[in-house]
Amino acid sequence: MRILQVNTADRGGGAEGSAWNLFDRYRAAGQQSWLAVGRKYSNDPDVLEIPRGRAPSAVGRLLQHGADAARSQEGRLPGMRCLARGLDRLAWPERLADWWHGRDETQFPGCADLPGLCPAPPDIIHCHNLHGWYFDLGVLPGLSQRQPLILNLRDSWAITGHCAYFVDCERWRQGCGNCPHLDVYPACRRDATAANWQRKAAIYAQSRLYVTAPSQWLLAQAQQSMLPAAEYRVIANGIDTACFRPGDRAAARAALGLSADAPTVLFASASSKNIYKDPATMAQAILAMTERVPSLQVLCVGAALPDRALRHLAIRQLPYVRDPQKMAQLYRAADLFVHTAKAEAFGKTVTEAMACGTPVVASAVGGIVEQIIAGETGFLCPAGDAAGMADAAVDFFAADDARRDAMRASAARRGAEFSLDRQVRAFLGWYEEILAQEPWRGRTGG
Predict the structure, then answer these.
(1) How many percent of the chain have pLDDT more than 90?
(2) For 46, 49, 165, 202, which has the most beta carbons within 10 A of its beta carbon?
């Protein structure tokens, strides 16, 4: 098969990593595999950067040149991404107007002919995150008439007026508008959420889409929304179980300079602006755990912890880890991994930790409930319940060795069920089913 995937970038967080892993494994399986992205960071020839189009005026083209220069410095200089977007908006007056009025920005003409980026017409198009400021949903009707098109939901943005997760709001069911959370990601300047919702509904009504999600929780939202599908299917995210697997806990701790015997917990910290990851509850959970387990070793990987109340604690703060092998060592070094999210379609770090034999304490939200077997592979607590998470950690550390070892073994078995090989087989099998149903599309290039 010739498979074209579409995503925000070829390097980054969960969605980027998942799309890249599929793209790479498809090639290893002998498929023709391409990845079209809004931002390309690798030198891989099969990664295709979606062109941004030519700005409509001479001044606009000059501004766009400045935006490209700023974009090339992302990751090296702070603020370059914001500068690049600001210049891009000035270069495209319609995009600037959309941003100013709170509408979804749509001036991304380069994505109109995604199949044309490929050396040969793809048989199938598999879209991941489409809200990374690079894609216009308005091209979906045309694309979906040429090749079978899969929309892989990573969050709830596709069915809302702007937000990636609605958490405590049900307006998405009726058409949004009067939004109580304009500031949450991706933020809006003004409330155009009803218009955004209606535009999405109109686009989907003209498209033929196959919709997948990594959890039944997220797929159920799609089925209850304005997003119709030729077929809905749950295919969970996969992890590399050759990397994320049980190992020597003592060696992992020694490599980090940690005590071999002290109880140890690992947190993945997030920016204070990321309400979905709930850093406030994470800080409270750390305080509650260290008060009740004074010898506790706390590891935090990711954004620096902003809470002043934690400054007196001996917390090992580590930057975001891109190397999967290093991340696996962190999981192995911990007795427990703690995940405090308010919303999560699928906690990839949850399955990674379990696959390394580390039980997980997590919020009972979204797809996480489908991943953890409470009492066997970890503990589930209500969202925002820092005290409950501390209770779970204390109970685990108070248990006898046999009980803790049994949970570790169960966690490892459960994590291994979410293998990348399983995900690859599931998607390739689904692609074949779709192409068998629609033989007139895809294989001939439309």
Answers:
(1) 78
(2) 165
Q: What does the longest C-alpha to C-alpha distance in the chain come to?
A: 72
Rounded distance, CA 270 to CA 273, Å?
A: 8
Q: What share of the chain is helix, strand, coil (3-state, %, to 5)?
A: 45, 15, 40
Structure tokens at 243: 């990397």
Q: Confidence band (pLDDT; 50, 70, 90) for 446?
A: very low
What domains, with CATH codes, occur in the chain? 2-56+92-238+421-437 (3.40.50.2000), 249-417 (3.40.50.2000)
Task: List all residues 6 or more positions away from 235 whose beta carbon is below 8 Å from its beta carbon.
Answer: 212, 213, 214, 423, 426, 427, 430
Total-model pTM: 0.93
Over its C-alpha atoms, the chain yields an Rg (Å, rounded) of 23
Residues in the chain: 446
**Cα–Cα distance for residue pair 5/128, rounded to 1 Å:** 7
Neighbour tally for 380: CB within 10 Å: 21
311-316-319 Cα angle (round to 5) = 105
- How far apart (Å, rounded) are the C-alpha atoms in residues 160 and 179? 10
